[in-house]
Every structure is written in C-alpha cells, then in structure tokens.
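Tutorial handout. Part one gives the primary structure; part two gives the three-dimensional structure as tokens.
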Amino acid sequence: MSLGCVRHNDRPATVYCTSCKSAICDSCTLATHFDHDRQLIGEFVQQRRLELRDHSVVVEHRQRQVDNEVERVRRASDKLIRTQSFSLYLDFLALTLIHYRLR
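Part two.
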C-alpha cells in the first residue's frame, strides 16, 4: 500500500514534509515545499514504526505494573474483609458471653 499525495490524490507520496506534517509527491516537493524540512517517505514510515514499537513496549510495561497493582489491592482487600469478618466474629462471641453471664 502506497501513500498518496495530500494535494494530488493520483500521485504517490515520496516525501514527508515535516514542516507541514504532510505526505507529498515530487511535484509538491519542488513547487510548494522546496524550502521546508522534508524526509523521504520510507524513512519517515520506518522512524514512526520504531517509535510506535518503543511506545508499545512502554505501554506493555505500564500495563503489567497496573495489573500487579490491581492484584496487590485485591489481596489487601481480601485480607481486610477476612480481618473485619474475624473482628465481627470476636465481637459476636464477646457479646454472647456477656449475654450469658448476665442471665
């Protein structure tokens, strides 16, 4: 799949104008973008692929961190529920003993 020129849809983009952030054909390079910063389209695409891969690695690492934190919070929540349940059970036992002593 080749990229088309933003101005001339029937022509392939050969250059990426970094000044305008546009994929352009040879005619546009000479006519309108001759004094702009440019990069060959293949180099631009390869550079973007590498950047996306790097970002993907960072996102995957952050996802693992989030997953680990979610698991840590889940375990802490489970422990808290067990602790509160046990505490309520002890309170119940204490009240039951008090009740039987008062009879």
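Part three, for discussion. The CA atoms of residues 25 and 31 lie 10 Å apart. DSSP finds two helices and three strands in the chain.
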